[in-house]
Amino acid sequence: MDDIAQDLGISKKTIYRWFENKDQLVQELLEFSLCAPCEVNTRSEENAVEEFCVTFNHQIQNLIKFHSSFFNDLKKYHPSAHQIWAGFKENNIIQQFRANLQKGIQAGLYQQDLDPDILARLYIGQLETIYTSDLFPPEQFNRLQVYKFNLRHFIQSIVTPAGQKYLHEILARTCCV
């Protein structure tokens, strides 16, 4: 709390007026950080490929704002806040991705033989591996570049020829992937 007070230029007493302890502060900051980017607008007229690119690019932009040790520290030092993250991941990110996969399969933009439950978790696992492992050291790899490469590689592996057409259109007009 000393570091936080010093960085904010306020006293610890002021912080404790608003937060009972450091765990409460971490929980509320995490909830705020997770909910703020939830306002991503996925218009109903977007196809699943465009929705995937826009939504997950936005989430990646927000994810890279966290230090790579953040989620490990959260799990180790603030288990209740880590539960908030785990719930958000399960109830928002994975569900959103699963819904996108189902939408794309129904529209014929994604391959019909995909299992949305497995694929949603597989993709999130890839993102977590990039984020929390030593596989891509930050001094050697730009994390945003690795995420975008992973996003592009992933979407290219699941689209049908019709989905590939939309993906090429998206790539031609935007740098989202």
Task: Give an overview in words.
With 177 residues, the chain is mainly alpha-helical. The chain has a single domain, classed as Tetracycline Repressor, domain 2 (Orthogonal Bundle), CATH 1.10.357. Helix content is 71%, strand content 0%. The protein contains nine helices and no strands. It has helices spanning 2-8, 12-18, 22-35, 48-63, 70-77, 79-106, 116-132, 143-158, 161-173. The model has no long low-confidence stretch (mean pLDDT 85). One of its GO terms (molecular function) is DNA binding. Keywords: DNA-binding. Residues 1-37 form the HTH tetR-type domain. It comes from Adhaeribacter pallidiroseus. Pfam families: TetR_N.
Give the termini distance in whole angstroms.
39 Å
CATH class: Mainly Alpha
The fold-level CATH name is Tetracycline Repressor, domain 2
- How would you spell out the order of helices and strands? HHHHHHHHH
> What's the structural domain tally?
1
Overall pLDDT confidence = 85
| Name given to the CATH architecture | Orthogonal Bundle
The name of the CATH superfamily reads Tetracycline Repressor, domain 2
Structure classification: mainly alpha
Helicity level: over 70%
Shape: elongated
Query: What percentage of amino acids are in beta strands?
Result: under 5%
Count of β-strands: 0
Largest sheet properties: none
Pick out the low-confidence regions.
none
Radius of gyration: 19 Å
Number of helices: 9
